[in-house]
Amino acid sequence: MKAYVRFPRRIPRHVSRVAFAGALFGAALMSAIATPAPVGAQEAGKAAFQRPVWGEDAKKLFGSWRLVETTSDGKVRPERGANPLGLITYHESGWMAAQIQPDRPPVGMAGAQPSGEEAKAALHGYTAYFGSFTVDEAKKVVVHHRLGSVSPGWEKTPDYVRAYEFEGPDRVVLRPVGNKNALVWERLK
Fold this sequence. Notes:
Layout: H1 17-34, H2 41-44, H3 56-61, E1 63-72, E2 75-76, E3 85-90, E4 95-101, H4 116-123, E5 127-136, E6 141-149, E7 159-166, E8 171-176, E9 181-187
Antiparallel strand pairs: 1-2, 1-3, 1-9, 3-4, 4-5, 5-6, 6-7, 7-8, 8-9
């Protein structure tokens, strides 16, 4: 007998879309954590499969966070829009996952499968990846060691280095090292 989860066709009115997405995302992440490492994954990054000893800053990152805003040089990023939806999760096991959907209407499909142009339009400005993470508290950076991503060519630079700054216990700003982007995240409760 196969086990499966049945998802509602509509999100109940009393549940916010972010909370619903967070629950689905968290379930998928916990499933990935409980799943044995994929064949060859250890060669992709040993840090992904060694349980780290965490410092205080790393422990503050544990949990799920919703995207509040994303800017480049203080301005709204046009490919993301004014109100993108995003979720990032850091787990004490060393796994993480992130997704950001641009603020725009859904991209439709003319047929049963998306055309190349429809698929390209759907992915424009969308970010989704998973892997392990490490924290260098002396340098105030978190490194996302990606093992999978929707972005073509991600394997050429699998590590995303992010400077972090906590703005209280439930807010963190991540800044990709080497550019002027800033992503503000708020802890989900």
